[in-house]
Specification:
The complex is a heterodimer of chains A (245) and B (399). Chain A is of the alpha/beta class. Helices cover 32% and strands 28% of the residues of chain A. In chain A, the strands form two sheets. Chain A has a six-stranded mixed sheet with strand order 6-7-8-3-9-10, sandwiched between helices. A four-stranded antiparallel sheet of chain A has the order 2-1-4-5, with helices on one face. Chain A is globular and about 50 Å long. Helix content of chain B is 58%, strand content 16%. The chains are: A alpha/beta (245), B alpha+beta (399).
Chain lengths: 245, 399
């Protein structure tokens, strides 16, 4: 299988006053088609930076990021918008649904920007909502739903455009453990159905739900391997330089 | 996302906060309304001016001779000769001698009645018809006969509609009524056009002790040649007096034009002042759109993350501003039309003699709508640009 996501020596620098922060420091890894990968790290580890770069919301300062073989670093803002639209499905911690739109309209948004005709858009959004078990609430507004239900809407929205990568940023962060588990099961089902899922989290117990863990610390990859290996979840700082350090 | 969908979305957003949208539009509403009413008022005034002057005939020239000392003057024969010499341009001429004496019918005096000495051609020139009896004739002029033709008002009010053969007195002189003029206006009233007496100019001149006749009306062959005819008469008179203060030639058409120009100018200035309100309204829209962009930062971030291009965000905000503004324009037009109708009624009530109809012009309406939409686009541009340039990462993090 060819690499769907490939980081080659990706660096991201931020200037904070006089000091330069290496939010990503020569990060390299590959994610293949159909994998379920968790990117884990404490706050400040650079996982949000990696997530922004993977999500094409940001571009590396140096190094190369290839998404489906395309060099994202060379793209302008509109090309990035187009690639986000076609290649990526976002699931956010705070759901990020548009409160004034109905569930159906919310799920239609990515298709709208992709230029899908109205009736087709409508049908596809309906199917996606049915898939997450909300087929009976098409005309509801997001705030009429519970947190777990809202997150399912955002999963439907992430799926509807049939993206190459589903990118979930702390998807259980705002949920209680029970509904959080439901969401994780749903992500696993997506993975089993053949989707590539990238999960970003600070929580080891959630990360182990994935197949593979990439652990970040201070902008560097400190572990990259099987999620069930004992080294995958050791306390940060004690992990040593892991497989792909 | 198609333009139609963007438009629908902006309608939805506008309706989502009606009060705020209304207050935002208020500047535009007032501005458009003011422009519509002012332009309508101007149209009404021009209509009134044209209507009043149309009675006096726009194909005619009024010549006043002041003379030059006592040495030089111009006789009516000379004036008639001028018209005869230029028959290709000038059509007819009639002296007009206004008599100051009051009209007495029986024992009743009428100061409002106009008494004018005119030639036998005057009725043809003015397009007046004789309803009863006869008009003035050439022999009345040469014989300085004491005959007159009266207006329909006097006929109906004092002679029971059968005035021919009766008499009236002007300044103590008795005139025999030989004819009655057909009604010129629908409402016969005192002091109106139909409250008049026409006598032979020669008789009038003698009774008024005016040695020479100082005032003439000349009609032209073609109404388009009025200014040419005016120059012609002026040149002829100059060759007689060699002094251009000795006479004046006034063309009604030119006067109407001049007055219309003046009204136009006043209207332009007033409309310009009213248009400032449109600019202020536009700034109001910009202000609210900037607030709206800040409020909707998160939404913009979400839309961008989901693949909205800068152009799509930009379009959404510009169209929203333009729709708000255009909606304000439409409300302003409706309000302006309503106020125009009210103004017409009020003017008719307050000044019954000058019934000005405030007529909002189609051009003003179309321009007002276009300008208000344009203002929305112009003043929506800056906030829209701000929204489009938001960094999606920061926007997503915004609460």
């Amino acid at each position: 299988m060819s690499a769907l996501i490939e980081f080659r020596d990706v660096c991201k620098l931020y200037q904070m006053g006089d000091t330069t922060i290496h939010a990503a420091d020569h990060v390299s890894f590959r994610v293949d088609q159909g994998e379920f990968v968790a990117i884990v790290g404490q706050s400040g580890s650079g996982k949000s930076t990696c997530m922004n770069i993977i999500g094409c919301l940001d571009v590396p300062t140096s190094g190369t990021y290839l998404l489906g073989g395309q060099d994202v670093g060379q793209m302008d803002k509109n090309q990035l918008a187009a690639i986000r639209n076609k290649m990526l499905g976002f699931i956010f911690q705070q759901y990020n649904l548009l409160p004034k739109l109905t569930l159906l309209e919310n799920v239609e948004v990515p298709l709208m920007y992709a230029g899908v005709p109205k009736t087709e858009r409508h049908d596809r959004a309906k199917i996606a909502l049915e898939m997450v078990g909300l087929g009976d609430k098409l005309k509801h507004k997001p705030l009429q739903l519970s947190g777990g239900q809202q997150q399912r809407v955002s999963i439907a929205r992430a799926l509807v455009g049939e993206p190459a990568v589903i990118l979930a940023d702390e998807p259980t962060g705002a949920l209680d453990s029970h509904t959080g588990r439901e969401v994780l099961i749903m992500l696993q089902q997506l993975h089993e159905a053949g989707n590539t899922v990238v999960l970003i989290t600070h929580d080891n117990s959630i990360a182990v739900q994935a197949q593979r863990i990439i652990r970040l610390e201070d902008g560097r990859v400190v572990y990259d391997g099987d999620a069930h290996a004992p080294e995958a979840v050791v306390t940060p700082g004690l992990a040593g330089k892991g497989a792909a350090g | 996302m198609s333009l139609l969908e963007t438009f629908q979305l902006s309608i939805k957003n506008i309706l989502g906060s009606k009060m705020r949208t209304f207050l935002t539009m208020l500047g535009i509403i007032i501005g458009v309304c003011a422009v519509i009413v002012i332009v309508g008022l101007g149209n009404g005034m021009q209509g009134y001016i044209e209507e009043s002057f149309a009675d006096m005939g726009t194909d005619s020239l009024t010549v006043s001779i002041m003379g030059r000392g006592s040495s030089r003057s111009v006789s009516e024969e000379q004036m008639y000769q001028i018209v005869a010499d230029h028959a290709d341009v000038l059509k007819q001429i009639s002296p007009t001698v206004t008599m100051s004496g009051s009209v007495k019918i029986g024992s009743e005096s009428h100061s409002g009645t106009s008494v004018t000495g005119v030639s036998e051609d005057y009725f043809t020139m003015k397009g007046y018809e004789v309803a009863q009896g006869r008009g003035l004739q050439y022999t009345d002029m040469t014989g300085r006969k004491k005959v007159c033709v009266i207006g329909q008002y006097l006929n109906m009010a004092y002679f029971g509609g059968d005035a021919v053969g009766e008499t009236l007195k002007v300044g103590g002189t008795t005139f025999t009524i030989v004819g009655v003029m057909a009604a010129e206006t629908s409402d016969l009233e005192e002091g109106g056009t139909d409250d008049c007496v026409f006598v032979p100019y020669s008789t009038a001149a003698r009774l008024s002790f005016t040695g020479t006749i100082g005032s003439y009306v000349i009609t032209v062959q073609d109404a388009d040649q009025v200014s040419e005819a005016k120059t012609l008469v002026e040149n002829e008179l100059y060759s007689i007096f060699e002094d251009d203060d000795a006479y004046t030639v006034i063309s009604m058409a030119e006067m109407v034009d001049e007055m219309n120009n003046m009204v136009d100018m006043v209207i332009y200035i007033l409309a310009g002042i009213a248009a400032i309100s449109l600019v202020v309204g536009g700034i109001g829209i910009m202000n609210i759109m900037l607030v709206s962009v800040t409020e909707r930062t998160k939404e913009i971030g979400i839309r961008k993350a989901l693949g909205a291009r800068e152009g799509a965000i930009m379009r959404q905000f510009v169209i929203e501003a333009a729709t708000t503004s255009a909606l304000g324009g439409v409300l302003g037009i409706l309000l302006g039309d309503g106020l125009s109708a009210v103004a017409t009624t009020v003017i008719a009530r307050v000044m019954p003699d000058t019934p000005i109809t405030v007529t909002p012009s189609i051009v003003a309406i179309v321009v007002a709508f276009a300008v208000s939409t344009g203002i929305g686009i112009i003043f929506g541009y800056l906030p829209a640009k701000k929204a489009a340039l938001l960094n999606p990462i920061d926007a997503l993090r915004y609460d």
